[in-house]
Structures are given as C-alpha cells and as structure tokens.
Amino acid sequence: MKIRQWNRSLKIRLAGEGIFNLFYWMYFPFMAIYFSDVLGNAVTGALMSIPPLVSIIGNIIGGNISDYIGRRIIMIIGSSIQTLMFALFALSVIYDNHWLSYGCFLGISLGGAIYSPASSAMVADLAEKSDRREIFATFITANNVGAVLGPVIGSFFFFNYLSGLLWVCTFIMVIYTTLILLYIKESVPTLKREEIGIKTIPKLISNQLYDYWFVLKDKIFFQYIIGGVLAVIAIMQLDLYFAYYITSYVPAQDLFNFNNWRLSLNGKEILGLILGINGLLFVFFVLPVTRWLKGWTDRNVFILSAILAGGGMFLVGFTTNIWILLLLTIIFTFGEIVRAPVIKNFIADYAPDNSRGTYMGAADLQFTIGRFLAPLTLFLSEWMNPLSIFSIILLAAFFSGFMYIRLYKHYTP
Asked: 261 φ, ψ to 5°?
C-alpha cells in the first residue's frame, strides 16, 4: 500500500514521528554522559534505571485510558507533556539546574510512554488488516532513519548547543501537537467513548486495574509476552554481550588488504562497523522484507525470527574473523527485522477493537522485562566462557520460538 493512499491521520503522524525521532536520537544516547559529568557515575547509574519504570507506568495508563476517552486526546496529552518538558529542560540547561534537567528527562519519558500505545492502537484502528504489517514497517523505517542519523548529528549539537537543540525539539513538538489537534480525527470504537461520560475518576481507575488484570490473565496473551521477553533477551545482546565479546576477544585485523591499500580495524572499530551495518540494514530492509513475507503467517515469521536471531548470535561464539562476523551480523539482524512489524500486528489482530490501547500498553512489558534480564549475560560471563554464554542466548531465542508455536496451537487469527 503506497503512502499516498494512507489515511491522512497516518500520513501526518508518519512525518511528525519521523522528524521528532530524528531529534530524539540527537540527545538521548548522550544523556548518561551528560548526567555522569555533572552528578557522577554512581548517581547516574541509579538514576538511569528509573526511566524504564516510568515508561511502564506511562504505557499502562496511556494504553488503557485511550480505550475510554480516545487515542487522539491521549496522544495530545502525551505530546503536550513532552513539549512542556523540553522547554523546561532547555531552561534548566541555561541555569545549570541539573536535578530539574533530570526531572524533565523523566517527564519526556513519561509523555512518550503515554503517547506510544495510543499511537500504535490508532494505526491498528485505521489500517486494513492486509496492510497493517506494511504500515507498521513504514513507521519502523522512519524511526530507524532517526536512530541512524540522529547520534551522528547529535554528537556535535548536543555537546556544543544543547539548549538550542532542546528548543528546536520544543518547537517541533508544538507544531506536531497542533497538527494532531487540528487534523487528526479520533479512531477509537464508539462503545467505550460513550461510557466515559458517566464514570467517576475512582471508577475509571478501578476499571483500569480490572482491564489489566483481565489482560494478564489471558493465557494466549501471557504466552505472547513470555515469547517476547525471551526474544528481546536474545536480540538485546547486540548492545550487551556481543559488544563485550567483540571488544574483548576479537583481535585487530585487516578488513581489506589489496596491493598497497590496507584497512585495519581493532575490536572497538569492528563493533562500530557492525552497529552501523545493523542500523543501515534496518533502515533499508524493514519495508522490503515485510513485503517479501506478506504471505507468511505471523506464527511462521516469529519462528523464523527466533532461528535467525538465535542461530546467528550463537555462531558468533565460534569465530573472531571480521568477515564471518559481518555475515553473522546480517543473519541475526534479519532475525530482528522480520519480527519488528509483526509484534504490533499480532496485538492489532488479537485484541478486541475497543481494548487495543490496553493490550498495546501491556505488550510493552515484554521489552521492559527483556531489557531488565538481558544484562544477565554480562554477569554470567564472569564465570562462563563465550560459547556457553552464546548457548544461553540461543536457548532464549529457541524457547521464544517454542512459546510462539504453543501460542498458535490455541489461537487461530
């Protein structure tokens, strides 16, 4: 489905989220460095563990309430919070109030978390079932363009013009929030929207707790979360144990050695090359791969992802050759790529129309829990050799595939 055939709301959001995501990645990767310089490593280590918890709360609140009062209003609330926090952040930098800066950083995380499940639910509301994967893949592509270009550009502006960068982010969020207010229409099914008029705040909170209790009791959805957690543990190793292995065990070697022209890279430079290739593969192949696998069921895509991501990562433990490592990077990156659009497509198909926001918010638990558990590989590496660690990663990926196989024995789309 070509972008020009999309609903207008989706077009506006694709442009707005893509531009904002570019600027997001211009500051986000450097926040730990920023706070370490002003607050110290120990304090920063503790402080940086809090944003994921804030995101959980925001996802849960934003997802569920969007089923009752609408996707649009929750998106406006989320983007407005981010707008205000960016403005305060810019001021805090000017006046060197580092604790206010951290509070604003948390506020930006909260606003984004409130916005995210409502945004995903709106895509599911507006897209035809046959086009959902491709539309989700397009949004992922736009976001990954920012993830690749943002840190490169931001490495200059963040350390030289941080306040100006934050004011630009504020300005962008003002424009985007205004566009949502003026041009994006509500998409949530009517049923729960009509109920909200007679609800008190305590009743709404009670219903929210009940909704999430009901969702987490859903055996099929619970298997989906477990499968997702195991998959995230494997995929996150690119930035964790895989990075440690490359920098600790892979020796300096030639990438090219032809006649008198030679390019030699050490472990850190090899890691940088691999991470760059990973990002570029995402940018250029998420959409084509989604189209290639359009005829595949979500079940088979999840299983393929487990095989490619787990198998590719496991084989890294047998080599230190740069070219073999680059080949394996392509293999496990494609394992991540094929999975990306299907994650939300499953929720769009599975969740009841008027509970999509709640399910989208709860589905993000797989990323939070997975990111929390993934660093255990570094902890275990103190006592285990690399091949043992890569074997654990392989088992996590394969058990993920097994959970998806079990899931689809009880669920037929």
From this structure: -105, 120
